[in-house]
Design brief:
The chain contains nine helices and 13 strands. About 35% of the residues are buried. The strands form three sheets. It has a six-stranded mixed β-sheet. It has a five-stranded mixed β-sheet with strand order 10-9-11-8-12. About 35% of the residues lie in helices and about 25% in strands.
Length: about 250
């Protein structure tokens, strides 16, 4: 009986692991390198799903570089805060998910060259006349997406209460419902929400304190992949493809 029970537990454990994220493979029969790429597809215009298909700046850049450099990709979807742990435990080989390169993250991962830079944008309800500067946020409730660079930025504000959620959409809804006072998020991601929500407005922006968005790899383990992606980025910029992709997502 114990053997049967143990077998069932093991089977169910494997089933849960297999279903914990979603994978999509781009096959290349001539590939010299295979990579499992982690992304959190809830961060438009960088990583999101449209008609059940992965799309966004990160997705297009990685797919195009992989095609040119002979890399076979398997896309693995998960929450943003789970990406680095998945990388460190060998569940994925690379992160392409609007991840900012910071000194703290460099302690555990290697980054490619920067492919995009952005800022933090602070958002409030348009009729909230009490918030006009960052200083006005002292003692207020601020919403952020869990695991992003904006989380420590919000926590650094004096006497604030920070509420984090895996989904920025949920955070925005909490702002609209009056459950929080403000949201701090990536500026380019925020612009999409502001277009869709006329009752919200950005009232303060600042540098995000990072080097910019980069692709991440486990520390000292993916030298060949990093070289290929750095070369690929340079080639895309040189022949105009990079600018075309930026234009596609209204990022230039």
């Amino acid at each position: 009986m114990r053997k049967i029970f143990a077998f069932l537990v093991a089977f169910l454990s494997l089933f849960v692991v297999a279903c914990s994220d979603t994978s999509t493979t781009n096959n290349d029969s001539n590939a010299s390198l295979s990579l499992r790429v982690g992304t959190a597809p809830n961060y438009k215009p960088f990583d999101y799903k449209e008609d059940a298909k992965l799309t966004g700046l990160d997705i297009d850049l990685v797919n195009e570089i992989a095609k040119r450099e002979g890399i076979e990709l398997t896309w693995v979807e998960m929450s943003f805060d789970g990406l680095i742990p998945a990388l460190k435990t060998g569940k994925i080989d690379m992160i392409a998910s609007a991840m900012s390169a910071t000194e703290d993250r460099r302690k555990s991962v290697d980054f490619s060259d920067v492919y995009y830079t952005t800022k933090n944008l602070y958002i409030k309800k348009k009729d909230n006349e009490a918030l006009n500067s960052k200083e006005d946020l002292e003692g207020k409730i601020i919403g952020v997406q869990l695991g992003t660079l904006q989380e420590p930025a919000a926590k650094a504000i004096k006497d604030t209460k920070v509420q984090s959620n895996e989904s920025l959409s949920v955070v925005i809804m909490e702002l609209k419902e009056g459950k929080i006072d403000a949201v701090v998020a990536d500026k380019d991601v925020s612009m999409g929400y502001l277009k869709e929500n006329a009752d919200l407005i950005g009232f303060f922006e600042e540098e995000d304190g990072s080097e910019g968005f980069s692709f991440a790899f486990d520390k000292d383990k993916q030298k060949e992949a990093i070289e290929k992606f750095n070369k690929g980025l340079k080639d895309l910029k040189a022949d105009g493809t990079y600018d075309q992709i930026l234009t596609k997502y209204e990022l230039n």
